[in-house]
Amino acid sequence: MSIAPTTLLAAAPPALPHTSDNTQLLVAVLLSIGAIILLITRLKLHPFLALTLGSGLLAVVAGAPFDKLLNSFSTGFGSTVASVGLLIGLGAMLGKLLADSGGANIIADTVLARTGSKALPWAMALIAALLGLPLFFEVGVVLLIPIVLLVARRGNVPLMRVGIPALAGLSVLHGLVPPHPGPLVAIDALKADLGITLALGLLVAIPTLVVAGPLFSRVAERWVGPLEAPTAVTPEEPVKREHTPSFGAVLATILLPVVLMLGKALADVVIDAPKAMVQRVLDFVGSPLIALLAATLLGMLTLGRAAGFDRARISDTVGKALGPIAGIVFIVGAGGGFKQTLIDVGVGDMVSHWAGQWHISALLLGWLIAVLIRLATGSATVATITAAGIVSPLAANMSSTHSALLVLAVGAGSLFLSHVNDAGFWLVKEYFGMSVGQTLKSWSVMETIISVVAIALILPLSLLV
């Protein structure tokens, strides 16, 4: 296949204002991002407020009128919540049904019953990847760690040997595969095709998971040494429920949105006639909103009803799923407002101009920007939102496959080197009973491997598609 000319930005860059204006824009970007970092990491301000204040500072320093500031932020906030917030809510409902019905334990028990001790790391990576499709990372950790501890105890294997593959499975899905919030926001900002991004994301995610999960787990085991699971989080054997969903029903429910979205992407490639009825139907059912809605409604039957829940219990379960994710929706929305402010003051054009002069790959640039913001803020979501907003003009003339790869590059960069400013770092540390040093040697290195391996796959892939 030919190389798309947009991958290496050698085309003539767009005209920009005078150098003094460029300098002012650069100062505005650095000050606003620095303020967001300071507010989140030092002053412990909620990311929603930090992103909102950072957007205001960006516009003021860049010299934008106040009416334009308000319009940019509110437009970006509203469009992001409208496109992403609904999907986050539906994903949370599906994840809550999976957790409360015992569906997660069904998957774990079924896979482990057919797995020998040598294959346990691979089995845990598979379980985490399956559970990671509909679950947010933090929810997945809370749900999966008790299973990891049980597996280590039952199989008499080192905790790191099964823990790292499980964490890698959740993290890879979180950074690279929609419908997780980060990839969804990047898809929206870069106007990428969701189905193509999902397909390429899975293609990159599988080898990345293999390297960062089962293969690295043996190295992490040697670096960290033997671990005793902390008594405070060591689980008891799961209580046997009178009614439980079947393994096939749970698996079908989890995979339904993925199958529908991939079907839409395949139809767009295979079917030439845009008005064909089959394509129109697949475009409808394969849209992310309909796909996740269908999976959630199906989950009420295959998970809720199969677990013996009555209608009131099912309604209560899906209702309780919305409260904890309200903060995520507001953070994502504020990130969308910051992204739109970046675009409207001309930062994207400035980055496009510089990238064209330096002949930097758009994919590598997106990854590097996300890496820097991730290191500074500790938030993968903030890194994805901000980096996607900065490089969004670079995707304007890209093919659908290359804009999807740019989404993945930004997502890969957002996972780089989780350390002490990341809430996930402390969550993993406490659940596994590790010291800070042990967590850096295992979790932090694993996150870095995921980021580096992913971009190492994405860059040559851009030459082939």
Overview of this structure, please?
There is one protein chain. By secondary structure, the chain is mainly α. Helix content is 74%, strand content 0%. It contains 20 helices and no strands. Helix 2 runs parallel beside helix 14 and helix 8 runs parallel beside helix 14. The longest helix has 35 residues. It is globular. The termini are close together. The N terminus is likely disordered.
Number of strands: 0
Give me the strand/helix succession: HHHHHHHHHHHHHHHHHHHH
Report the average pLDDT across residues: 80
The shape, in one word, is globular
Separate helix tally: 20
Task: Determine the strand fraction and express it as a percent band.
Answer: under 5%
Structural class: mainly alpha
User: Biggest sheet, in brief?
Assistant: none
Percentage of residues in helical conformation:
over 70%
What ranges have pLDDT less than 50 throughout 5 or more consecutive residues?
Answer: 1-20, 232-239
- First-residue to last-residue Cα separation: 6 Å
Question: What's the gyration radius in Å?
Answer: 22 Å
Task: Furnish the topology, listing elements before pairings.
Elements: H1 19-41, H2 47-62, H3 66-100, H4 103-113, H5 120-132, H6 137-155, H7 159-176, H8 181-190, H9 194-224, H10 247-270, H11 277-285, H12 288-304, H13 311-320, H14 326-344, H15 347-358, H16 362-377, H17 380-391, H18 400-413, H19 423-432, H20 436-461
Helix pairs in contact: 1-2, 2-3, 2-14, 3-8, 3-12, 3-13, 3-14, 4-5, 4-6, 5-6, 5-7, 6-7, 7-9, 7-20, 8-14, 8-17, 8-18, 9-10, 9-18, 9-20, 10-11, 10-12, 14-17, 16-17, 16-18, 17-18, 18-20
